[in-house]
What we know:
Blueprint: H1 3-15, E1 27-30, E2 40-43, E3 48-50, H2 53-66, H3 68-73, E4 79-85, E5 88-95, E6 103-109, H4 116-123
Antiparallel strand pairs: 1-2, 3-4, 4-5, 5-6
Amino acid sequence: MHAHSVWIAGVAGLVGMAGSHAQPAAEMSLRSCVDGSPALKLPVAAERATLDAADRQRFDAAAQARYPLYQRGGFRPYQVLLLRRGGQWQYVTLWHDGRPEPCFAAVFAADRFDFTAEWLAKYRPRPLDPTD
């Protein structure tokens, strides 16, 4: 299964499936990996893409080099999303913490990383497509 589809399937579980007569959700929520911390909320129409394995490793290495606190966590993200939130591009790391759906662990301003422009061109982030 394509990584974008894996993330969409995970988000579908987070958004929740309502009856067929319900209005589509305008917002989705990603649970925080830190108990008691608020969920990350974003519009369903937010542009997004899931990094492939090589780019995920490159991002993780760059984030660890730039942010010592992130490095201390010692975890490797299950997925890294590139998404536009509040008009700004961001990277969001997703982890598995033993629950069925992934949780978000960290959010980074994408403009701090020199490969962001390259990846925006490569992945061409787009809103969630229900046909994916």
